[in-house]
Amino acid sequence: MRNGIKSGIQLTWDLTKTVIPVYFFIVILEHINALDRLSGIFEPFMIYFGLPGEAALPFVLGNVLNLYPALGAIEALSLNSKQVTIIAVMLLFSHSLPIELAITKKAGAKVLPILFIRLMAALISGFILNLVL
Prior knowledge:
The chain contains seven helices and no strands. It is an all-alpha fold.
């Protein structure tokens, strides 16, 4: 019991160290209007998935880092339940790409086809979910 509580507290602390700074970073970007500029750049692409342009930030964070910074970024944005569902499913297909592709390479698989499949699965799922939700 004691080890379980200790492990739970340690895991919570580890996640907090990742999620909270990203959350505040997104809030700061909103206050200095940098998020609006980024949103404008990505809006034409993200609209196909029913997402605002600023949703590109958690998508990139989730793909380059892992899901926890992406969760912090998603929380900082004002997304509705449909948008959260879409970006969550997209990130389930493609997340932590540098780490997972390195593991894929060590396992002997070809990296580019795996990268292509994962990104296409994310994009296609986002597009389809936008249509059906």
